[in-house]
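Entry under discussion copied across for reference:
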Amino acid sequence: MNAAILCRVSTSDQSTESQEQVLINKANELGYNVPTNLIFSEKITGLDKYNIDRKSISDLRAACERGGIDAIIVGELSRLSRNPTALNQMLALFVEVYKIPLYINDMRLWTINPLTKEVLMDNVNKLITYSTYGYEEVMKIRERTKRGRDYKAKQGYSVGTMVYGYKITTNTKTKEKFIEVDEEQAEVVRTIFNMYNEGKSLMYITRYLRGNGIKTMLGCEWQTARISCMLRLKWYIGERDYKGIKNTHTPIIDRNLFDAVQRKMEKPKRSTTKHRYYALTGIIECGDCSKKFYGATTKRAALYVCDQRVGGDCSNSINKFFIDGIVWGVIKNRLLDNENFNDLMSFFKLNENDIEKLQTELDNTNAIIEGLNKSNKDLNKQLVSYYKDRAKTQNKASLNALNGLIEETEKSIESNEKLISNYINEVNQIVAKIEGNKDIEKTFENPIATINQLEDKDKIRELIHKIVSKIVVYRNRDYRVIKIIYTNGRSEDIIYNGRNMRGHYIHLSKGMYYEPTTGMVINPNMVINYDATGYYIGKSDREDTSYTNVLEGKELKLEDAHTALIMARKKIERIEPTFI
């Protein structure tokens, strides 16, 4: 018969070898062999609240599931866990699920009779009781330590963490610790406060410190967030607060300088640009970082600017009048090219299959919400039951077990509520698509009349927001690729190069589209034949074709596709100035 042994030491400099030998000898005495693959050892400290998931336990559980273990032997109860809730879970696992006898060496107790396989409930209850008293002792030690720290704090001694600019000095006679100024670090603190008060930014100060090789207390590079926290610390004016116990020490910064810095930090940071609400605000976003674009006016132009442009790493932006003109031009041309109502509806409107899929998705999502609501109803009933049982229970072990169950149940309810909220948002989006689809048909009953009537910029904005769900702007060197995504999921890609083709744009067509992950234009037709007179995408079956240039490939560089389509003069669209 084979036995598994579980060893644990509480400090990193201790070894488990002596424990292993003792337990192997005990296993042999009890008539068990201990294969090397059934020795589970670990170095772990503290109360190990969640130790049912620690590595040695996880490995032991995996071995139990594989089979071939006739008994588990541990040196003492604390090697399993010092936490009664975790211990309850492990006892239930080994006794009720795996049904493997567990032997505690120092207590000489079995949880299951190794001969008859009968569960020894008296022994199991003893283990729970002993664990509870052990847990209580740990809590008492913690409480005594807290009282000692509080007393030292009241006497003015050093308690808790130290901050940059100070050091701890120990009295050689009393061994008490006092806080003193570290003059070398204090000079850095004064420099930081003075520079900020003079108007230098957090980033400027960070670069100054890094450039001069100045490190933090832990030897790390300075960060703007760390400096921001330092500037708010009252430690530097000689005030500290340890869990409500106020005390004083030698200040590094003058009160007047500290107050001046606080006033500067409270002032709202003013951006060099003003946020504007433009026609595409709310639906236009950055393809590089997925952040929203906002409207901004600079001295040179009106722009849509990435939200990460100020204080972030992204500098993507696009001229407001150009992209407004492009988007409205694409939509208007689509209306003019499809005077037939059915053709127009086939592009902008959801078809019957689309609506059927949305309706199925809506039904499935509602069913999930209903199931989650039912689950929460049952969980709440169970929670009430646990609370009632806890009110009646006097046994400490049972109280701890119930507290664990209550905590887990409350977490499950909270998790379900978050899922319900997310699914409700999905339902609202699906309903909006279905309802919006009905409005589109009414809007385009007469395409020409619709265009003629849209002289009012507010109506143009309303139309764009009704049929377009998102506009994504990708940056590729001098190029901007604009992806217009309609509410029905269809999309169109436009290439714009303000440097080489200012005032014009190229509309990808015939199944071509831009792939942002590779920066390539996908060309399903494989071939673009072109010359100065026109273009033809795909192999021509005409014998009289006069095209002299050919561009082949399923993936084309953006600049190559751009050049070929420029030669296709019919695809060059002029941006009409618009003030929507």
In short: The first strand starts at residue 3 and ends at 9.
